[in-house]
Description:
Oligomer: single chain
Structural class: alpha+beta
Number of strands: 4
Helix content: 40-55%
Strand order of the largest sheet: 1-2-4-3
Strand content: 5-15%
Radius of gyration: 14 Å
Number of helices: 3
Largest sheet: 4 strands, antiparallel
Amino acid sequence: ENINRMRRLYSGKCRLLLNKADECFPAGITHTNPEGGLFVWCDMGGEYDTLKVYAECIKQKVAFVPGAPFMADPSVRCSAFRLNYSTMPDEKIEVGMQILGKVLTELM
């Protein structure tokens, strides 16, 4: 029973995050559609650096994980980033995705 409850909870949070990404992100940003787990992997395209986006988002109290730490050479510019939807209430996911979308639009 608990597993089914958690599946519904996280499935709903994942759908919310993906819907907000589709709604708020500028054209050209891609994202995974996970079948499990608690993360969504996004990519801005090779010419962009998520560290610049991250720095601006942190000023606005929104965080994500830049993709560089997941790469073989973390010193190389990386256009990907990872989002987590597990612990935030739905309202914070919505607001955070709106802010992230605004920052992405401004910097791309």
